[in-house]
């Protein structure tokens, strides 16, 4: 058996032991997400538009991640709507910034890996790199949206009559609690992936000026910054969607029997 | 910080942030004097010849030549005009299409007095970078105020530590990479938790969980590598490797999972402390049970966060492999398998942290939490 199979089995067993049915569901969501990511790459290789593929796959990934983990109906729905709004906002930011910074494709550092590969494949790499940046933030958006929505839904359960304006304050408060540790997840996650690249920069003695204008370096740092922006935006947007949902429920109390 | 809560305070902060952002962008557009390499600003672009090409795998692409006229902004040739020719492809994987107003680094070849000749090297990107950093900091401060500032400071402090560790690693020729980043992981975790929680019992329990979970996951990973003889772990596919790949990969995995395990144990343990404050009569067994419940809802999404960070990054290279006639299996092995292994080991750490955090919190929490 290969190392991946064994590690995957260990993860599955541990997730079932710790989380029971919810753990098994989360593992399944992880597998499906991998399938979707691979599908996105294959579709782009078949010349489908990278941006449209990313949007569709992105929405599917968000839906899978959010609805397949255990949470009440209200918070899952709010988290999904909010994360979809954040995804669209992020696309509006990433597309122009990638056009501006021109960090697409590969840099001189990649030449060894590119040996023997033809790079003139007729697919727009500005769009491919944009798609990469969007996809790499999906997990962070879903996680943050779920955390905020769950926190607010708990407050609603304890104080069902909380005023809408107070609810908004509470949402920002929940955001303040999670932002520090979420940023560290992103920082370590990304820097764990870039360690080799940074060692390369110091080993080959790049000057600071060369590093700050280097295609690969800027592209990787932009990915971290996009992920951070997506998490920051998730806080007010999720809170806003939640206040909308609650005020609508209060105006139509008859229809809100499902989550009481 | 009280001032920020008033209405004029808010408006002034917005204005200040905007002015500062404008100054930063303007400044980096006029900082060419700081650079050694000559920088040219493009004032005119003429698109020339187009050539269609087909490679061995029937991929069609177009190469376009453009003539760029511009002014040198710095160095001994400052103010001189020159025209250079640049070729780019429709896919632009390794080349650039420059526009009017672009600033780019050039290499000057000929120093004859009458005419300068040069080739385009790369785009100047510091403005984009500075603008985006400004955007993150401004949004953090405006939306999350003081907590946003602290979050940014902890990331900045970790960034500095990270840089120092890379320098130490360089001075030892990479022989000790796992030890350097292993001990650094402990410092990282302690510093971050001190900034987020402060120094108290809660912080110590969280620190112990973070280090314990990450280490155990790494040991499980190493055991699996040993018994499967590292089948399917393709170190040769690692990018940018300048030293022994195996310890480097383990150090990457260690760092990558550290943040997520820390995130999760902070969440679980702070919820449990809050629970105990509200209901001091709960027994250790009940605390453990609710810790497990909280943990099992957040572990899935967290593993997902790391999975997308580790694996989405391989998109461009994987696509290039597919377009170069490689099979799906080979493309996966050469591009994505290492990211998947990293996600799985981190995932194991994230899952193990749930019982660990619940156990440590239930046993070592003070009988009566005062605060």
From TrEMBL, chain A:
InterPro entries: UCP031503_TM, YibE_F. Keywords: Membrane, Transmembrane, Transmembrane helix. The chain crosses the membrane at residues 34-67, 79-97, 117-142, 178-201, 221-242. Pfam families: YibE_F (PF07907). The keyword Membrane applies. The keyword Transmembrane helix applies. This is Multitransmembrane protein. It comes from Levilactobacillus senmaizukei DSM 21775 = NBRC 103853. The lineage of its organism: Bacteria, Bacillati, Bacillota, Bacilli, Lactobacillales.
UniProtKB/TrEMBL annotation, chain B:
Keywords: Membrane, Transmembrane, Transmembrane helix. The chain crosses the membrane at residues 12-29, 132-165, 177-197, 203-225, 302-321, 341-361. Signal peptide: none annotated. This is Multitransmembrane protein. It comes from Levilactobacillus senmaizukei DSM 21775 = NBRC 103853. The lineage of its organism: Bacteria, Bacillati, Bacillota, Bacilli, Lactobacillales.
